Input
Amino acid sequence: MTKHMKYLLSLVFTLSLNTLAAPNSIIAVVNDELITFDAINQDIKPNSTKEYKMQLVDHQIDLALQLQEIKKIGIEPKVTSINASLSDIASKNKLTLAQLQSLDQFDEIVQDITDQLSLIGLKQYIAQKADAHLTAAEIEAELAKKPNGLNDLKKQVKIAQIAISSIDQTNSVLQSQDDLIKQFLIDLSHKIEKGTSFSDLAKLHSQDSSYKDGGESGWLMTDDLPAVFKKEIDKLTKDVLSKPFKAGKGWRIIKIIDTRKIDIRIRIIKAKLIKAKQNTYFKDWVKTLRKDAYIEIFDHKL
Output
C-alpha cells in the first residue's frame, strides 16, 4: 500500500528490525485487495489507542478505493513529474539520482511517487465536477471576519494595445526591424490621433491575441505586470496614447481604458471557498466508493 510522502522525503526506506519481526497480518479486505498491518505500522506509537488505529485503517481503505478508481479511469502521472519528484528526493537527501536508483527500494519509491501523483490527479479530476458557485452572502461573511485595510486595496487597469513583433522588410533593407516596427506604430498613432478607431487598427494590424477584441485586455493587476509595462502605464492617464515601446520580442503602443481599486481579499477568499467546496465534494465522493465496495475489517488484530 502507498506510503506517506513524508516517508519518501525522509528516505526512511528500510524497515526496522522490529517491523520485520512483526507478523504482517491482514487487517482489512477492500474488494479484491488486502490491507496488512504493515501499511499502518509506521504511524503507530506505543500509546496509540484502538480508535486511532481504526482511523489509520479507514485511511488505508480510502486510499485503496481511490487507487482502484485510478486504474478504472486510467489516470497516469507524466514521466516528467515522476522524474522531478525523484530528483527532489535525491536532492533533499544529498544523493545523486544514480545513488537513489541503486537502492534496493528504488522500485518501491517509484511506485509510491506514482501513486501519490495519481491520487493528486484523481482529486483534481473529481473536484472539477463540484458545484463551486459562490453566493454574495458567502463572500461577505468571509470578508466580515477581517476589517478592510488600505493594504488590501490594489490597483487594476484595463488597457488596449497594438503589438507588432515582425514586419515586412522587403522594401526597406537599410532599416532594422526595430526601426521599421517603431515607425509603423508611430504612423498608426498619427492615424488614431486624427480619429481612426484604435480598435479597428488593432484588429487589422496587432499581432497579439487580443487583436480579436480590438486590442483590449481584461482587468490586470498593475503589480503583476512586467516592469516595462508598469513603467509605461504609470506615465499615462485614461485614453492617452503611449509612445511606441519595446516589451519582450516586439513593440507596442497602449492606452488605458479604465482603472479601479479592488479588495484583493476577495480573490483570496473566493479561492479559499472554492477549494473548501471542492474538498467537501471529493470527500463525499470517496464515501460513495465505500457504499459500492466490499469491505471487511479485522479489528481484533489491532
